Amino acid sequence: QVQLEESGGGLVQAGGSLRLSCAASRRTFSTAAMGWFRQAPGKEREFVASINWNGWTIFYADSVKGRFTIARDNAKNTVYLQMSSLKPEDTAVYYCAARFERSTLYYASSQDYSYWGHGTQVTVSS
Fold this sequence. Notes:
Elements: E1 4-7, E2 10-13, E3 18-24, E4 32-39, E5 46-51, E6 58-60, E7 68-73, E8 78-83, E9 92-100, E10 115-116, E11 120-125
Parallel strand pairs: 2-11
Antiparallel strand pairs: 1-3, 3-8, 4-5, 4-9, 5-6, 7-8, 9-10, 9-11
């Protein structure tokens, strides 16, 4: 089992920045592919970004490409999502997820991940 805990959400004006963190409780975090997803009210959960176990494979949703950056620090068991040029449509609860697999593949479906955090709210005001 692994616990994932997101932090860093909050209220920000359009054009601003936030950095989300997701801390994992398990030392084998370094063997996990990690993903960020988000869910806005009344909408389905959607993929945001993913990073494979060693950070060599990164993939973004088109809606955030060029504005968001995913990164990981395996020594700290933490994955980050740096969000810049935020827009009101980025408002959502953001979740991190883990899939324990050493692979060069990327995973963009929520069904690919076995472990989830409880989420952190990001609100972007216009």
